């Protein structure tokens, strides 16, 4: 595997548990920082919880929604909506589980991938060549493996994110509460996620609107009263959603997680996609059948992404309607059920009421 994020480590865990000799290469050594909100929907929590004790920093029971800083809407739930993790802790925990299952995890940057009918070679930065039967590319949204496979993406966004040190009074004010702001740039939104002493705040918008996105982040922080907090991290990262017919495999090389452009198109939630596609990839290569990975992904994640694309298109045109829908019992029920992992957008949009509402938008 190339990449030791949730996708590569899920793959490493599944392959090693199936008895395959498994090597996971990452240019960084865990624990390492990763630009990410660290919000786990129920689907992610269930997938990761099946193999590790998930290091949850905070569980969210209250959601505040605003529309460009206005029209505040508050929703509360008895059951947690999202579970917040610090990615450095979460990924390090997954890494230990993969190693315990028998995978070898090594720090090395992969520079290129080569393959012939008999095997695959990862060429490392120092020129060393590592050869195996299959290679799973899980090196994130701008990695070498996506280029090798020829992954094509439609929606590319820029996420800007800060980790803010929260003094005790603010820590209490934000405990168990998140904020989501539907943004002024078409398709954009901002978030504040609490993590017991740290607030992760960020915005995401279509790539190519960098100055506007930065200005949106500054305004969003000021509106949330967080503009003056100490910045522990300040970073940005691209997210990419695959085109519906983009390849997932080239010969003996398959791609998973962000490297494959597997991401929920509307919310840009990617951890559940990484965990699930990584596990499918590990099972497929351990069985010596890389082709079965493609059909498994299309059947499950493909349908979810198709629904997400429809939601994204409608949200980009009508953010106000989405905000208003959350104020209605069916709208809130649907969103909360998605967050808790009780349903998917694909399942919801198979229901006539939701599908008709979306068509009207
Ligand atoms: C601002 C922002 C906020 C987000 N918030 C959320 C959220 O709250 N919830 C959610 O579910 N999703 C969120 N996402 C998406 C989520 O972060 C990704 O979908 C997820 O990290 C994908 O996991 P992955 O394992 O595919 O890739 P990654 O987590 O990116 O891991 C890739 C790994 O590959 C390694 N690597 C890269 N290149 C090489 C190389 N050449 N050689 C060796 N190793 C290499 C990297 O060091 C890294 O460890 C967010 C994304 C962004 C940008």
Features:
361 residues; alpha+beta; FAD/NAD(P)-binding domain; 2 domains; seven-stranded mixed β-sheet; three-stranded antiparallel β-sheet; 18 strands; 38% helix; binds flavin-adenine dinucleotide
Structure, described:
By secondary structure, the chain is α+β, with helices and mostly antiparallel strands. The protein folds into 2 domains: 6-56 and 83-153 and 241-316, FAD/NAD(P)-binding domain, CATH 3.50.50.60; 155-237, D-Amino Acid Oxidase, Chain A, domain 2 (2-Layer Sandwich). It contains 12 helices and 18 strands. A 7-stranded mixed sheet has the order 5-4-13-14-15-12-16, with helices on both faces. α1 packs parallel to α3, α7 (271-286) runs antiparallel to α8 (291-317) and α8 crosses α9 (319-326). The N and C termini lie far apart (42 Å). Bound molecules: flavin-adenine dinucleotide (FAD). Flavin-adenine dinucleotide (FAD) is lined by residues 2-8, 25-28, 34-39, 44, 109-110, 138-140, 143-144, 159, 161, 202, 237, 239, 257-259, 263, 268-271, 274. Flavin-adenine dinucleotide (FAD) binds at residues 2-8, 25-28, 34-39, 44, 109-110, 138-140, 143-144, 159, 161, 202, 237, 239, 257-259, 263, 268-271, 274.
């Amino acid at each position: 595997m190339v990449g030791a994020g949730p996708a590569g480590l899920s793959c490493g865990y599944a392959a090693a548990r199936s008895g395959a000799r498994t090597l996971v290469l990452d240019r960084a050594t865990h624990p390492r920082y990763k630009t990410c909100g660290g919000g786990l929907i129920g689907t992610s929590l269930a997938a990761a919880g099946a193999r590790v004790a998930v290091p949850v920093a905070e569980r969210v029971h209250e959601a505040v929604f605003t529309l460009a800083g206005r029209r505040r809407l508050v929703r509360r739930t008895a059951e947690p909506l999202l579970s917040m993790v610090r990615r450095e802790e979460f990924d390090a925990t997954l890494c230990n589980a993969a190693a315990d299952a028998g995978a070898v995890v090594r720090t090395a940057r992969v520079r290129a991938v080569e393959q012939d009918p008999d095997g695959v070679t990862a060429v490392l930065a120092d020129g060393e060549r590592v050869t195996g039967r299959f290679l799973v590319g899980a090196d994130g949204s701008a990695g070498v493996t996506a280029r090798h496979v020829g992954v094509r993406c439609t929606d590319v966004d820029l996420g800007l994110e800060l980790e803010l040190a929260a003094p005790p009074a603010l820590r209490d004010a934000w405990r168990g509460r998140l904020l989501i702001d539907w943004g002024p740039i078409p398709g954009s939104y901002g978030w504040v996620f609490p993590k017991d002493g740290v607030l992760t705040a960020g915005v995401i918008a279509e790539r190519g609107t960098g100055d506007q996105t930065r200005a949106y982040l500054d305004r969003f922080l000021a509106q949330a009263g967080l503009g003056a907090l100490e910045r522990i991290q300040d970073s940005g990262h691209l997210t990419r959603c695959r085109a519906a017919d983009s390849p997932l495999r080239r010969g003996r090389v398959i791609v998973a997680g962000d490297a494959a452009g597997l991401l929920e198109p509307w919310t840009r939630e990617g951890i559940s996609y990484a965990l699930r596609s990584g596990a499918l990839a590990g099972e497929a290569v351990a069985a010596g059948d890389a082709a079965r990975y493609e059909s498994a992904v299309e059947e499950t994640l493909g349908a979810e992404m198709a629904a997400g694309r429809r939601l994204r298109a409608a949200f980009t045109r009508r953010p106000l309607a989405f905000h208003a829908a959350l104020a209605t019992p069916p709208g809130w029920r649907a969103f909360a059920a998605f967050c808790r992992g009780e349903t998917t957008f694909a399942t919801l949009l198979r229901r006539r009421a939701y599908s008709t509402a979306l068509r009207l938008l």
